[in-house]
Specification:
It contains 17 helices and 13 strands. With about 400 residues, it is α/β, with parallel strands linked by helices. The chain folds into 2 domains: about 110 residues, Alpha-Beta Plaits, CATH 3.30.70; about 280 residues, Ribulose bisphosphate carboxylase, large subunit, C-terminal domain (TIM Barrel). This is 2,3-diketo-5-methylthiopentyl-1-phosphate enolase.
C-alpha cells in the first residue's frame, strides 16, 4: 500500500452476516462514503482517501450456538483523512461504528507519521526510577483512603503514616476533588511537608501524585499551581476527560512531573466481548501514546478483577518496544495485599508498581506497618524466600501480621 495508514482491528459478532461485505461497508463508509457509484474520474481523485480491508477472519464453530459466530476485521485508514490527534483517529475508526451492532475495537496500529505527533510519557519507567533513585526493584504505591470530609492536619497525618511504611509513591484517591477542607495547593504543601518529615526518618524519596481535577480549561493551570506548591507527580482521571487532554498535559514543558493515569470509567468500555474498546488498547497503547508515565488497571488477583491474559496484554502494550515512546509503568491494582506480592512479581517482573489502599491502611498494626509488610514481601520474593518463611524472621512482624490477616498466594 503506497499511502501512510493507521490500521484498526475489530471483532464483530453476528450469527448471519456476510463479514466480507460488512468489512467492505466499514472501509468505504468510514472514509469516502460510497465507492461503486462514483464515476471513474472521481474514483481516481478519491482513491487516496479510501479505506481498505486488509483481512477478514471468520470464526464459525460447527453447530455454533446463537451468539458464538464472529469475525476479526482488519481495516486500513489513510492518514490523510484525519488530523494527527487521538480524537480524530478514534472518531474515524470507531465513532459511529461503535454504535452499529456487536462490534468491539480490539487494536490500533499507528503509522510512523501519526505516532510522530506524540512525545509519549516524559518520564516513563526509567524516568520515574531515576526520580526515586531506585534502579531495579518493583516500586510500592499507597493510595489515600477515606479522604472526603477530612481536613489538612488529618490528611497530613495519613500521608505521614503511609510514607513511614517505606512506600515510593502515594496517590490521592481519585474521588478527591477541589474542596474547601483540602484545597489543591494547601494539600500539596501539607503532604510534601509530611514527605520531608518521613524522609528524614526513612531516608527514602517519595512521589506524591495529587489528583488533578477541575474543568478542562483550568487543568494545565491547576497542574502548574500544584507543581509550584511542591507537587512532584499528578494523578489524572484520563477517561473522564479524554486522551487528548492527557496528551496536552503530558506534552506541556512546564508540567515537569510524572502523570499517573487512573482507569476510572474504563469498565464502561472494555469488559464486554461484544462492545467497546479492548483493555490493552484502552488502558495500554492509548494511555501510553497520550503520555501516561504510570497506568493503573484492575489486576487479576484482587477485588476488581480483569482476566490475567487481558492484564498481561495491557502490560505488554505499556512496554512494547515497537512503540517509539518511553514505556509506561504498569500498576495492577485493586484489592492488593502483601500476600499477593509473589504473584504480581511472577507475572509482571520487576518493572511494576505494587499498589494498595485497603491492603496498607487495613493492616492490623496500622498504616505504616502496612507499607512495611509490602516492602518485606517484595524483598523476600526478590530473594526467592517464601512469604511464610520470611514472615517468621525477626524484623518481619509486619509481614507476619499481614499474612495472618489476608493469607498469601504463591
Ligand atoms: C480498579 S484499579 C484502581 C485502584 C484504585 O484506585 C484503588 O483505590 C484501589 O484501592 P484498594 O483499596 O482496592 O487497594
Amino acid at each position: 500500500m503506497s499511502h501512510s495508514v493507521c490500521i484498526a482491528t475489530y471483532r464483530c459478532h453476528d450469527d448471519k452476516a456476510d463479514f466480507n461485505k460488512k468489512a467492505q461497508g466499514i472501509a468505504v463508509g468510514l472514509t469516502v462514503g460510497s465507492w461503486t457509484d462514483l464515476p471513474e474520474a472521481r474514483k481516481a481523485e478519491m482513491e487516496k482517501h479510501l479505506g481498505r480491508v486488509l483481512s477478514v477472519t471468520v470464526y464459525e464453530p460447527e453447530n455454533a450456538a446463537p451468539g458464538e459466530r464472529y469475525a476479526d476485521l482488519v481495516i486500513a485508514y489513510p492518514d490523510v483523512n484525519f488530523s494527527r490527534d487521538l480524537p480524530a483517529l478514534l472518531v474515524t475508526v470507531f465513532g459511529k461504528l461503535s454504535m452499529d451492532g456487536r462490534i468491539k475495537l480490539l487494536d490500533l496500529d499507528f503509522s510512523p507519521a501519526f505516532v510522530s505527533a506524540f512525545p509519549g510519557p516524559k518520564f516513563g519507567i526509567t524516568g520515574v526510577r531515576e526520580l526515586l533513585g531506585i534502579e531495579q526493584r518493583p516500586l510500592l504505591m499507597s493510595i489515600f483512603k477515606s479522604v472526603i470530609g477530612h481536613d489538612l492536619p488529618n490528611l497530613r497525618e495519613q500521608f505521614y503514616r503511609q510514607a513511614l511504611g517505606g512506600v515510593d509513591l502515594i496517590k490521592d484517591d481519585e474521588i478527591l476533588f477541589e474542596n474547601p477542607l483540602t484545597p489543591l495547593e494547601k494539600r500539596v504543601e501539607a503532604c510534601m511537608e509530611a514527605a520531608e518529615q518521613a524522609q528524614a526518618e526513612t531516608g527514602q524519596k517519595l512521589l506524591y501524585a495529587v489528583n488533578l481535577t477541575g474543568s478542562t480549561s483550568k487543568l494545565a493551570a491547576n497542574a502548574k499551581l500544584a507543581i509550584a506548591a511542591g507537587a512532584n507527580a499528578l494523578l489524572f482521571n484520563v477517561l473522564a476527560y479524554g486522551y487528548d487532554v492527557l496528551h496536552e498535559l503530558s506534552s506541556d514543558p512546564e508540567i515537569s512531573v510524572p502523570i499517573a493515569a487512573h482507569p476510572a470509567l474504563a469498565g464502561a468500555f472494555y469488559p464486554s466481548p461484544h462492545y467497546g474498546i479492548a483493555a490493552p488498547l484502552l488502558l495500554g497503547k492509548l494511555m501510553r501514546l497520550a503520555g501516561a508515565d504510570l497506568v493503573l488497571f484492575p489486576s487479576p488477583y484482587g477485588s476488581v478483577v480483569m482476566p490475567k491474559e487481558e492484564n498481561l496484554a495491557v502490560q505488554a502494550a505499556l512496554i512494547d518496544p515497537a512503540l517509539p515512546v518511553k514505556a509506561s509503568f504498569p500498576v495492577p491494582s485493586a484489592g492488593i495485599h502483601p500476600g499477593l506480592v509473589p504473584l504480581i512479581l511472577r507475572d509482571f517482573g520487576q518493572d511494576v508498581v505494587v499498589n494498595a489502599g485497603g491492603g496498607i491502611h487495613g493492616h492490623p498494626l496500622g498504616t505504616a506497618a502496612g507499607g512495611q509488610a509490602f516492602r518485606q514481601a517484595i524483598t523476600a520474593t526478590l530473594s526467592g524466600i517464601s512469604l511464610p518463611e520470611a514472615a517468621s524472621q525477626p524484623g518481619n512482624e509486619a509481614l507476619q501480621a499481614a499474612i495472618n490477616s489476608w493469607g498469601y498466594k504463591e
